[in-house]
What we know:
The protein is mainly beta and 124 residues long. 0% of the residues lie in helices and 51% in strands.
Amino acid sequence: QVQLVESGGGSVQAGGSLRLSCAASGSAYTYGSYCMGxxxxxxxxxxxxxxxxxxxxxxxxxxxxxxxRFTISQDNAKNTLYLQMNSLKPEDTAMxxxxxxxxxxxxxxxxxxxxxxxxxxxSS
Length: 124
């Protein structure tokens, strides 16, 4: 059982930065062995994986469109996942979700635990 709550979304102009947070609770002792990830979904588009981290090792992966701009990280002591987003572009506008599971995968349908989402809007 994992509960996830995202925060940190908002509106920013192109080129700006935001840091998203995802607080995990419930069965927190399993945090270190979970894969956690950030996904996003824009209106009319499929939900896509943005960044993944396997918490036991710190191994990360990013979708090509955000490489070099976004950084996923974790703070095990606080049971919190972060997504630092720099050099934001209008095409980054979407609802951003954090997710958790025992294994890492890019397909959203394979993830069992999801937060409610936080909106990110980037204007030109």
